[in-house]
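Can't attach files on this board, so I'm pasting raw text. These are the components:
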Amino acid sequence: MKQKRYFLSESELPKQWYNLQADMPKKPQPMLSAKTKEPITVDELAKLISREAASQELNMTDRWIDIPEPVMEMYRYYRSTPLVRAYGLEDALGTPAHIYFKNESVSPVGSHKLNSALPQAYYCKQEGATNITTETGAGQWGTALSYASKVFGLECAVYQVKISYNQKPYRRSVMQAFGAQVTPSPSMSTRAGKDILTLYPNHQGSLGTAISEAVELALTTPNCKYALGSVMGHVSLHQTIIGLEAELQMQKAGEYPDVVIGCFGGGSNFSGIAFPFMRHNILDGKKTRFVAAEPESCPKLTRGKFCYDYGDESGYTPLMPMFSLGHKFCPPNIHAGGLRYHGAGVIISQLLKDGLMEAVDMSQLKTFEAGLLFAKTEGIIPAPESCHAIAAAIDEANRCKENGESKVILFNLSGHGLMDMTAYDQYLSGSLTNYSISDEDINKNIEQIK
Amino acid sequence: MKQKRYFLSESELPKQWYNLQADMPKKPQPMLSAKTKEPITVDELAKLISREAASQELNMTDRWIDIPEPVMEMYRYYRSTPLVRAYGLEDALGTPAHIYFKNESVSPVGSHKLNSALPQAYYCKQEGATNITTETGAGQWGTALSYASKVFGLECAVYQVKISYNQKPYRRSVMQAFGAQVTPSPSMSTRAGKDILTLYPNHQGSLGTAISEAVELALTTPNCKYALGSVMGHVSLHQTIIGLEAELQMQKAGEYPDVVIGCFGGGSNFSGIAFPFMRHNILDGKKTRFVAAEPESCPKLTRGKFCYDYGDESGYTPLMPMFSLGHKFCPPNIHAGGLRYHGAGVIISQLLKDGLMEAVDMSQLKTFEAGLLFAKTEGIIPAPESCHAIAAAIDEANRCKENGESKVILFNLSGHGLMDMTAYDQYLSGSLTNYSISDEDINKNIEQIK
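---
Top answer:
Structure tokens for the assembled complex are below.
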């Protein structure tokens, strides 16, 4: 009997997150205060985000961080997520590779984002906040934080990138059903938004701009904290629950991955699946490859520059040492809204620089072709973001076929695409296009980085 | 530690469906051939649906029916579905009742409908069919059959009720992503559709009409079988996997339900959760109540007439002894499209007649109010159909609060509502309304029944 799915019992669920920073051969360079240009401190970060998250962000020593019991209680509600052997996809490709995916789409909000939304909301509530605010691109993160806020009793305000707000009204409705206040960004509700709309009245928004708006709201509202769904080290930390579970589940399947793949926007789901396995490369001499799959229209890992840059369009955040396309870079309106971010996160950037991971870029049409094959063979409509990981997994599997290798491929299915059917419609009707970016466009923005 | 979710291991999964017909104190009256008015035979039914399904339909003797291994293999892919203790909802209501729900929304297609789509597609394929056709109201059944057809290698054509086709384009897209041919009904592709459109050019469709179109296509196309997602006894049989699992899961929770609740359209999800528990009322003297929650705008159980009537608008199906509003009844355009059906299914109708179950009706506004409370407390956006079960469960829980009773309430969450956010938007913006039906309207249609 072919076993397709592997679960963990409640008692097997990991009770700690894994902090890769403790094991990195070269530690990341420090983030710098935007004002002083000195290395940022927990106190400074804690003005913006919860103190606990700030302290996790700068923790370079503790390998394991306890998951608070109220967060564990919520994790038990939807975790473990299934590890699935993709027999259907393997058969369709005729590959000797063994393809596994971790199905994060089964969380209540439909994506991995809840793994970090829960602890972030919990810490804010513990520390006395009454309100929390954030930005969202595709809407997955905003949905997760809306629900997590409701769970822990916080009011939540979400700035949703305008193109996504208009293209995906269902996403907004889900956040509103969870009780959140949703504002399309850029908006007239912040200085950052007004400045952009004055220059470009029809600006369709970007993650960088929406971050500026949410950060500004947090800094100017009493008892209000900001929460970020990707890029930061504490977000990657929380997401390691994915890879820690996958490690135990792969043991049940009697296999170990040769390649681990995640789509890449700011790094949350990629680091979640990759970091726990990467520790065995660093500590135990394993030779697993780690592949981040980004869109060709927002290629910070494959074509960006490693430098100090801001995390948001207006320059409110600390300066971060990272691969970036420049914080003024506004990516084309691809449907994978969650990958439309100019920078790569501090830890990931260091890992890429040090050759501990790889990156590939994917055209939009290729990702939807991969997503539809996956839907037909595995029965799940994948998020446009996740389609990047699927496309990269298919590339690996096809290489295995050419070379007659039975490699073990593991990718993260970060979320479902049930809110993104407009994109699938466009693909099926032939009206979807690719967006490539010229070196000129990239260099123009990178040159603006100070 | 509060345990929220209960699962079964693969070895604990039921391997047989439960056939309530074998245990019914009074057997249902026979269905009659539309032509001869004689009791229908397996041979006659097998012209339309698979022979195996036809034989299950008329099986009054075998209590347990084996689930074929290829169907079990697919069941293992998404089953058991979680049994969830709704602590969040209980707290919000302040009720001493224990509320459980069976979460069928986690199936790959988002609802319980896959439980019957898989065996129906499998039997058709086994018996040599190359094509399969059906109707869909809300789209849940069409989605399930589209995917099941892909799994077993059949081409699938779906007639989708026009109002739903236009209101929920995402549903259509999902079916197309699974490779199905989707046609809005009434269409000009069948005699039944042309007849209706000639009389009413702007007809928005009904399940009864869409069934007529699908049946006509099946009867006039070589190697094409018809499949139905509700109403029929073999569909209820396949859906008993829900209640059989729930029974084992309730044992793990150390409880037994005092009340079992399902929303009601044609009976598929209600019978799935109810029948396995009902056998203990019949055989072991248990006193569980079974409550079917139907919309007040389509009240066949609470206000329909028990009589012989057709299952479709054009009168292609056998005559069925059932509670009906008349096969020409076209219900108002409520958002719970899956409940917009004029009749109740032969087994259910007999059970209601014999006092073995109850029915309640729910206004549209009340169901969305209940659905939003559920979303905020349990983190899942419920389908508008499922909201009827939630509303009925809340009524029961509130009565427990008034009476200080700790009853155990179990309801079936038949599916998620992520394709139905337009309806939630309308509710949140105050533009959603109730639809009540006058006795006159009901009697007018019932009088047309011959």
